[in-house]
Amino acid sequence: MRPEAQVRLAQWAIWLIPLLWAVNYFVARKAPGVIEPYTLATIRWGVAGLLLSLHARAELRREWRNIAQVWYQYVVLGFCGMVVCGAWVYIGAKSTGAVNISLIYSASPVLIAIASVLWLHERMRPSQVLGVLMALTGVLHVIVKGQWGALGQVQFVVGDLWIVAAMVSWALYALLQKLWPSPMGPTARLAATCWGAMPVLLAGTAWELLQPTTPPLTLHAWTLGIAAALLPGVMAYWIYGWAQRMLGASRVAVTLYLGPLYGALLAWLVLGESLGWHHLLAAALILPGVYLVSRAGP
């Protein structure tokens, strides 16, 4: 394919990335009663890890000594990125909606920016401070369902707290990747991280399978797990990395602001979830806030 055609294809493909990641919210909401959270996360990242390892097998074989020397890094990264941001999201989805998940999760770049200031001593511009305040206000607006004047009467949903924990963990995952640079490429590193998560995920799966209320692993359960592995897992990461090479990181990153919109539309069209005014107001705070925090320039 000619270079110009590859660029045009990349320009269209980047609009698929937030849609592919939004599929995970759909999977999370369909999983209760079909497959347990740790089992679902194990299938997702086990299948993804296998496919990624096959693709990067030469690099993994070449770098195995480096991996063995810093094995604990992959365990920590796996816990943050695949256990908390995998199994815990599925736990949260038992009691909160896909719209809430997508909106709360969308504020993770804000926490990354705050942590970069505190840990990496990066500077934050006044516009970024404004963005932080806007985005965090939007997240709280989702959690209190817009009922600031009657906080004592708000029915807080425990699922939202699981998603907040996942949002914090994703920010930690991103920060640790900066603090722990790797000689490996992104595909091999992600594969190693998948395997670093497996001990905790398998332990959680074993515990779930011993519970009398755990549903059997049906074809429906495997379909959800494999869909989560292929669409928001391998395919989304692959398109993201390829599009970055074609178009540059900043042009690709802008489309990720569409994640909450895609997630909300998918929840409305497919899951039948309702959209409240507090969701719209939260989106109006979070998305511009994330843009202000993330944009380059003085």
Summarize the structure.
With 298 residues, the protein is mainly alpha-helical.
Give the fraction of residues assigned to helices: over 70%
Q: What best-fitting shape do the alpha-carbon axes yield? A: globular
The value of Rg in angstroms is: 19 Å
Run of helices and strands: HHHHHHHHHHHHHHH
Tell me the domain tally.
1
Low-confidence stretches: none
Q: Which class of secondary structure composition applies to the elements?
A: mainly alpha
Largest sheet: none
Task: Tell me the strand percentage band.
Answer: under 5%
* First and last CA, distance: 38 Å
Our count of helices gives: 15
Look at the structure and give the mean pLDDT: 82
Q: Report the count of strand segments.
A: 0
Folded structure, characterized:
The chain has 298 residues and is an all-alpha fold. The chain has one domain (3-211, 218-294). Helices cover 76% and strands 0% of the residues. It contains 15 helices and no strands. It has helices at residues 3-13, 17-30, 37-55, 57-62, 64-69, 71-92, 98-105, 108-119, 126-143, 158-179, 186-209, 219-247, 249-255, 259-269, 277-294. Helix 6 packs antiparallel against helix 10 (158-179), helix 7 runs antiparallel to helix 14 and helix 8 (108-119) packs parallel to helix 15 (277-294). The longest helix is centred in the C-terminal third of the chain and has 29 residues, at 219-247. The model has no long low-confidence stretch (mean pLDDT 82).
